[in-house]
Automatic annotation (TrEMBL):
Any GO MF annotation of the entry: methyltransferase activity
Pfam families xrefs: Methyltransf_25 (PF13649)
InterPro entries to which the protein is assigned, alphabetical: Methyltransf_25, SAM-dependent_MTases_sf
Organism taxonomic ancestry: Bacteria, Pseudomonadati, Pseudomonadota, Alphaproteobacteria, Acetobacterales
Keywords: Methyltransferase, Transferase
Protein's UniProt keywords contain rRNA-binding: no
Protein's UniProt name: Class I SAM-dependent methyltransferase
Gene Ontology BP, a term: methylation
Domain called Methyltransferase: residue spans: 46-134
Length: 200
């Protein structure tokens, strides 16, 4: 199924308008986002990896006083984000090769990181570290257990993968992050499995 992971970039580019139309704006993520915000200083710089259209997550972060830099591999998604939130900074970039040369108080990879293959996920933790100031908060979503899963979006295969929880903990620790909170399939967050960590 690893070949399906390579199709994600093109899939979201082809279906950006559909994603924008179907993406819930109810902000069911609010509880976790507010825990993330509580770890940040005032007026923090936040990196949103796989930002999509910027709605609703980056919009919520900006309303809370964050200066958001959003990156996404889809030019159409970035175009939509620019239209939705012109005060943000938006860049087309593949998270796997991300090297902005800047560090942030907070890093977010919500419903984006889990589209990478398992080897690419492992390689992301040094990328997170390279973009984090001391004390930075990191929040991302994963699957609840090691494995790969295929969904459907826009009539095409939509790839997801996860490592085991124990491996995520080890990868975070290897880069100097401690786990602040973790919950698998959180019923208060639409069944998402969420990791919140902080660089120590």
């Amino acid at each position: 199924m690893s070949s399906d992971a390579e199709k994600i970039v093109g899939l979201y580019e082809r279906h950006a308008a559909l994603f924008a139309a179907e993406r819930s704006t109810a902000l069911f993520e609010r509880g976790w986002l507010d825990r993330f915000l509580a770890l940040l200083p005032e007026r923090p710089a936040v990196l949103d990896i796989g930002c999509g259209t910027g709605v609703p997550i980056a919009r919520h972060l900006m309303a809370a006083g964050c200066a958001v830099t959003g990156v996404d591999s889809s030019p159409r998604m970035i175009g939509l984000a620019q239209g939705n939130l012109p005060a943000g900074e938006w860049q087309v970039a593949d998270m796997r090769t991300l090297a902005l040369g800047r560090r942030f108080h907070g890093i977010l990879a919500w419903d984006s990181f889990f589209h990478l293959g398992q080897a690419s996920q492992r390689a992301m933790f040094p990328v997170f570290r390279a973009h984090a100031v001391p004390g930075a908060a990191l929040i991302f979503t994963s699957g609840p257990a090691q494995g790969e899963a295929l969904g459907r979006f826009g009539g095409e295969v939509l790839y997801h993968a996860s490592l085991a929880p124990e491996e995520y903990r080890a990868l975070l620790a290897a880069e100097g992050f401690r786990v602040v909170a973790h919950r698998a399939e959180d019923p208060e967050c639409g069944g998402h499995t969420v990791w919140l960590a902080q660089l120590i």
